[in-house]
Amino acid sequence: MANITIDGITIEAQKGWTILETAKFLGLEIPTLCHNEGLTPWGGCRLCVVEIGEGNNAKLVTSCTYPAEAGLKVRTASKRVIRARKMILELLIARCPTSKTLQDLAAKMGLEHVRFTPKWDKCIYCGLCVRMCEEQMVAKAIGFANRGNKLKINTPFNINSDDCRRCGGCIYICPACTLRCEGANPETVLCGRCENSLQPTCIEVNDNYNCWMGLKGDCGTCVVVNKDK
Predict the structure, then answer these.
(1) Which of 9, 57, 75, 134 has the fewest CB neighbours in a 10 Å radius?
(2) Per-domain residue ranges for the chain?
(3) Does domain 2-77 have CATH number 3.90.78.10?
(4) Do residues 122 and 179 touch, judged by C-beta distance below 8 A?
(5) pLDDT tens digits, one per residue of 51-105
(6) Global pTM exceeds 0.85
(7) Region label for 177, one of left (φ > 0), alpha (ψ between -120 and 50) or beta (otherwise)
């Protein structure tokens, strides 16, 4: 057991807990992307950063990998933390603007501008698919290849792997595989319209329909809005 303070709340954290797990126990929300409860912590995306320490000794750490140590003082939503998360999210969206997961995070975090040139890539290298294949499917059919700007996820020796069972686990967990409502070639980098996995959109026009229930325009909301303009 370790007594730590998160956002002014003191709690006795269970042995082996991380800051993220402790914050979740308190009901405090910390955004995550590469983290999944069924997989080993990785800390690759950095979206779950929090601030620990005080004064000049304060620093940012990934809450999904940092242990809940005795006497730790944590801030999950300081100005420095929010600024860092938005910068990280900008970089991720610039790499893969078509990810609905990233677009929903941007809407939730209030991100309004992306200052970086979009790459329109199909992967954000969060490592979820690699860990899913190795840890849950026990296959190791895919992994990281190369480094730097040549980094990619591939099969061993770039050939079809006999270990792959075509289970689809890598696709299921991938945050970049689902396209935005606009389809494969949206006109803008940042959508910002909806956090539509959590709440209805365009509620003043349609009380129950969510964008994820069908293709854009199916409910007629977009048509109504355009007519009003």
Answers:
(1) 57
(2) 2-77, 89-120+181-212, 128-173
(3) no
(4) no
(5) 999 988 999 999 999 999 999 999 999 999 999 999 999 999 999 999 989 998 9
(6) no
(7) alpha
